[in-house]
Design brief:
alpha+beta, globular, about 240 residues, three-stranded antiparallel sheet, two-stranded parallel ribbon, Jelly Rolls
Length: about 240
């Protein structure tokens, strides 16, 4: 069954919106130098960009897989809390289930407002013993593998495209991100419950991701990022 997004409120019109660089996957796959320059410019300035997946067959295939992953997330987070808590994160890792409020949600130390599920690449590709998981995850391992392989190919394309602008020979970045290597590569499903209008605040503390690249698919807008000209402590929330 394909994912059907729930009805969501319109994005507020009084919130500043940043115009991000838009990069074409199909043009990047063709090795177009102008598109590579756009990619490098975005990565070396804001550190974030929008990638158009709809102009490429590989991209459209990944989008279809992502729709199924959203559906998987709906089923997972719809489980009773007691069931989800059986699979709480493995100590010393971020793998497994994290309930809402279990982590810091802002710079003042308040609790977060999201739950998530995290699975490693090694688990799904059979490179390590599988972590305990609810049936809804275990019965969709083929879907998880399709997503991991598709997303990984996309990330390697981005990294290899950056080699020439960085003055590198072709190959070093892609080789150290070979899918067969043991890494911290993972996918994470998030659920942010609706907030009451009288108690609006951030749902997750400001942070820097620990991987080389984060590939984000979301339903609602609202992702915030820190411009290079600002300090983390400029954020009052």
């Amino acid at each position: 069954m394909a994912f059907i997004a729930p009805s969501v409120p319109p994005f507020p019109n009084d919130v500043p919106i940043v115009e991000l660089e838009r990069v074409s996957l199909a043009t990047l796959q063709a090795g177009n130098s102008n598109e590579v320059d756009k990619l490098y410019g975005a990565c070396s300035s804001d550190g974030i960009f929008l990638l158009n997946l709809t102009d490429s067959e590989d991209g459209r295939k990944l989008v279809a897989t992502v729709d199924e992953m959203f559906k998987l997330g709906q089923e997972l987070f719809g489980l009773d809390l007691d069931e989800k808590l059986k699979y709480t994160m493995t100590p010393g890792t971020t793998l497994g289930y994290k309930p809402e409020g279990a982590a810091r949600g802002d710079l003042k130390g308040g609790p977060d407002r999201c739950e998530f599920w995290c699975t490693s690449k090694e688990d799904i590709l059979g490179m390590s013993s599988p972590n305990a998981a609810p049936d809804v995850i275990n019965t969709h391992r083929n879907l998880s593998e399709a997503f991991i392989r598709g997303a990984h190919a996309l990330k390697v394309l981005v990294l290899s495209s950056l080699e020439a602008p960085l003055g590198m020979e072709r190959g070093p970045l892609s080789s150290i991100h070979d899918i067969k290597l043991r890494t911290m590569d993972m996918y994470r499903l998030f659920h942010y419950p609706a907030q009451h209008s009288y108690d609006l605040r951030g749902s997750m503390a400001p942070h820097t991701d620990f991987g080389s690249i984060t590939l984000l698919f979301n339903i609602l807008g609202g992702l915030q990022f820190l411009p290079p000209t600002h300090s983390l402590h400029d954020n009052k929330n």
